[in-house]
Design brief:
The complex is a heterotrimer of chains A (127), B (579) and C (417). Chain A is an alpha+beta fold and 127 residues long. Chain A contains two helices and ten strands. Chain A has two domains: 46 residues, N-terminal domain of TfIIb (Single Sheet); 62 residues, Roll (CPE0013-like fold), CATH 3.10.530. In chain C, strand 13, helix 5 and strand 14 form a beta-alpha-beta unit. In chain C, 58% of the residues are buried. In chain C, strands 1, 2, 5, 6, 7, 8 and 21 form a seven-stranded mixed beta sheet that branches. Classes of the chains: A alpha+beta (127), B alpha/beta (579), C alpha/beta (417). At the B-C interface, strand 24, helix 13, helix 16, strand 29 and helix 17 of B face helix 3, strand 10, helix 4, strand 12 and strand 16 of C.
Amino acid sequence: MKKKEARVITCIICPIGCKAKVTIKNGKISKIEDVECPRGEEYVAREIEAPVRDFFTTVRIKGANILVLPVRSTQPIPKDKMLDCALELANIVVDAPVEAGDVIVKNLLGLGVDIIATRDMDRAKER
Amino acid sequence: MSDKEIVQKLKDQISQDPELSKLPLKISCEDGTVHLEGEAEKWEQVVTLGHLAAGVAGVRGVVNKVWPKSLPRPKKKRKIKEKASWDGMKVDVVIVGAGIVGATIARELSRFDLKVAVVEKEADVAWGQSKANPGWVHAFAGVDVDPNMLKAKLCVRGNAMYDKLAEELDFTFKRLGLLAIVTEEDLLPLLDFVIDLAKQHGIPMEIIRDREEVFRREPRITEEALAALFFPTYGSTSPYLVTIALIENAVANGVKLLLDAEVIDVMVEGGKIKGVVTDRGKIFTKFLVNAAGLYSDEIAEMAGASEFTIHPRKGEMLIFDSKHSSLYSHNLAPATLKSDPYTKGGGIAISVDGNSIWGPNAEEVPYKEDTGTSREAMEIVWEKFSHFVPNIPKEAMITAFTGLRAATYTEDFHIAPSRKVKGLIHAAGIQSPGTASAPAIAEMVLEILRKEGLHLEEKPDFNPIRKAPPSFRSLTKKEREELIAEDPKYGHVVCRCEHVTEGEVVEAVRRGATTLDGIKFRTRAGMGRCQGGFCTPHVIKILARELKIPIERVTKRGSGSELLPYRIKALLLRGGQVG
Amino acid sequence: MAKRNVDIVVIGGGAAALAAAIKAKEKGIENIVILERSEELGGILPQCIHTGFGLSYFKENLTGPEYISRFIKKAQDLQIEYKPDTMVLEITPEKEITAVNSVDGLLTLQAKAIVLAMGCRERTRGMLGIAGTRPAGILTAGTAQRLMDIEGYMPGAKVVILGSGDIGLIMARRFAMEGAEVEAVVEILPYPSGLDRNLVQCLEDFNIPLLLQHTVTSIRGSDRVEAVTVAKVDASGKPVQDTERIIECDTLILSVGLIPENELSQTADIALDSATGGPIVNEYMETSVQGIFACGNVVHVYDLVDHVTQAGEFAGESAARYVLNQLPPLTRKITLKAGDNVRSIVPQIIGGEEPATLYLRVKKPMRDVKVTIGNLTIPKRVVKPPEMVVVNLTRQAIEKLEKRDELKVSIEEKAKQ
């Protein structure tokens, strides 16, 4: 792409929330303006080139007192894979008991991150 | 006046009105019932025509089919339902409508050796007007109501019956009386006339001319108060709890309650009632009591016996925090030179739970399902009453709600046997003072049924006593301990704001509640400050468990109002898309 | 059941409560009981399945359940007694507590000190006076969050969210991630109420429209929500004529404010601050009733649970010192009043011999400001309504404060001189 593009990214590293002006030439970042610190610059660059997000959702669980188990990814995942990950996990049903940190899915969608439980969940007492 | 004379008189009146005379109308009169057909330009004209017709001497009722050409006709949403196990049932009396009117009649009839069925289209009782009003038990029908009107007579008679009824059926009824506050100087010389009017209605009344005395009785009333009228027999109750109590007693004495069954047709043969067709099955009977509230005109029409039309009159009400309401000890109303002859003007009621309920206002509306609140109406009610009770701030408002009055054009109750179909008894057009009148209405309907040939033999084992379910928040420490010892579920509080326990929710289901609103009205769970924020998940789970249904099928107020329609992941798995 | 004597009763079992109980136990108080109305400890945290918790307290990026599990485990390790499914009905100024549950029945506890940590409730549709019908499908955001992420049910498939505060934004993302269509987030102010991170990660990431300076004017639908009408509003928040339009949806989520839950505090005649809705507290987090302390959202609404934990620890420590007769009275009593651009201050009363931390809420976003407390000024780069402003006062700073009974706390832009 031989285009010149300008984008505004709100930095979320600290409460100041600098509105970075990013110039993109030929698909690569050529300039980042209006950012006050190097951490911010790093974040903005990442947001443009390879944005990542913490990933967290619930999975269905059987045999516990409640129907869903909260889970998260061990590392942030590419932003554009969030929806695929959510769909993938929608098919899973886990059995109680579960401990916080238990790996629910290893290497989800080959992204190199695991999905772990974020809390303990006991088996429901038999009535 | 003969039918022909009535038609002529009405036509003359209409021709004198520049707007109405232009409308294409067909006017006829049959046996004292005026029939109006045609097109109007706006709804106000329809109502004016109806009132004009009702005002002609000799008119018994008005059937008004005039409709504004610009408004879409109301559409009936019919639900497809399975046939009920009672399809084909034969009874002695069918009562259509389980509001306070249908309920009092059912309870009256349950004294006798009869097979009675109450048919109600909603998922629970009292969901029409009976839950949508401030709970006044009026002392009388109003200063400018002709004391000879049926509603005037039945109101006074019914009001007097409330103490005994409350004791037998274990519901709360408080005779706080009403203070009508005079703030307009022009009204002061007219107060003596009110004594005569009160006498004509047969009720006690006291004029408080001394300003200081007014403040002594109600210290926090507006500084603008000049004098007051005190009506000691005014009371407050919870009309839906009264309805529930009546129905429970009726059912305990053998009446069958059929909920979620809408009458879609009335079977008539040879000019006599044969039965009703509901959307879940047929019921055969010789006597049909029409207590269908807003839809009583439609029931009449289904029987081929149109004698009146209901024109809904909407009223908005505001509910305030009970903390502020406890500052006042009487029901209150402004005493004013009235502008609207068809409504008492509303007031400031103290509900039996201690909340202040303001309103209602009055607005003629074309649709019977127009139950939405509006900002304008809320403002009107706030403006009208706030200066009377300066200690209640706007922030104390918990919520607003509306009700629709089932008004006929004669603006009176229509309680009479049908003139066209034998066995059909109307208990229709019951607007304010419906709650107060209900016990007297039942008495009157009983007499009509007797005259119409219903054989009434008293049951020796009729039990007039009904006990209300326990209400944890109202119990003493000892009573609470005993209750919990009996059933530990009464130790689990699921509604923080009103201190409602799981035991009460379970008992409400046992007594007939199947919906979230049903639980709300019977237990008060969800009526407090957080408006269900904490208790809703708990109550939904208890309903699912007790009714043995999946959580997805728990509804707010019957099918179509499912609260949690999808299990988690169901949308993802079905749609395959996110975002 | 006979009255039971307890050293410290903690009312609530969430972040503030656990922090207080743990700290009190560590300070040597043995006889502590936590009374929690839900079936498990954790308060609101178990349903906050997103990350962003513990960034300052643990220097880790945790989800709500992970954050609170650490405190629940600690409390269990310390063998702190707790009673779940227990509702406190009343507390007296003499610190007698009446509570109830299915196992013990009615309970009466006589406490030496009480820590109030009941959190908050959500503002309702009724309080806002939103017109229209009352169908199924209207929920506050917190209740929707519980139903979705603990009970495992979706309240609806097509959602409109009123309010751009953090809870509304987080629920927008949750709904989107669970396959619902989020039609819009509607915000009455000209700027969003939530943190920037949430605007990016909850709205932008999912292409959810944010309608600023709009409000929901009415709700339609008889049995179930069918649509809402939204309209543009003027500077005073009133709908502008002829700007109404209909958005079809089956669910309306309300994220329109949190109110500290102080019904119980009132049974003990505890003085409340009308600016916060919570008790007036001194720097020990003690309320107007001696020996009754308060912490967490019941005092005023926090945005970071890390601050809640700190406040809870502080209140727990104060309660413990009180029981051990080691809590010195305040040498002076300075009431702090909210001045320019300050919505509320906690604690409202300071004047002891120890350092104190002030938590302020500002009315509007400002840059390069100075926080003025009497004669003391503290500079701040940025202040925003959704982010609590924390001001640490040293002993010396407090000592140097003007000798007055009342001091105004205001925030002004440095440039304006």
